[in-house]
Amino acid sequence: MQNIHNKIKSIRLAKNLKQEDIAIKLGMSKANYSRIEKGDIALSPEKLEILQSIFNMTSGEILNHETAQERLGLPNHGALEEIVKQQAAQIERMKSNSENLLEALIKHFQKPIISSKLDSGNDIPNAIASVFAIDGIDFILNKDNIGEDHPLLAAYKQYKISLLGYGIGLFLDALIKETSKGSQRKDKE
């Protein structure tokens, strides 16, 4: 089972799975699972069976899986892995920066609201609504740019749904008014 650790990592990345998720299913820590992917720990037959189930592949398919390095004919010195690590780290930094920007925007919009109130109470919902109303905020408020579990992502989805409902309501009101005007004109004729 030479280089199986590279194949497991390649399959995991291709299937967009996280090390933590696989480690939990294997009943081990993320650190130990990471050591398997690095080739520091041998993969037991029992763990291979579980991986087959996770990846929905046979052991033969796992062993015959062609990694990106193998497809490109690159030597197995980890250069490609290093590039992938750097890009993954950059993506995480960008997500963190997006989340920090959202927090800063909420604080920015919250200041005028607080200063305009006599009781100086926090009006976070209005500040959040102000952030949601910014043109182009859709580019930041999505699961690619902020963590899927970020509370603003769910709130933003609700906000967009309510805007859609409001727009549909306005359209229906206008349609009803136009229809009733047409009916009144026909009645007068």
TrEMBL record:
Every HTH cro/C1-type domain range: 8-62
Any one GO molecular-function label of the UniProt entry: DNA binding
PROSITE patterns in UniProt: HTH_CROC1
Keywords of the record: DNA-binding
Name of a matching Pfam family: HTH_3
Superkingdom classification of source: Bacteria
Protein name according to UniProt: Helix-turn-helix transcriptional regulator
Native source organism of the sequence: Pontibacter cellulosilyticus
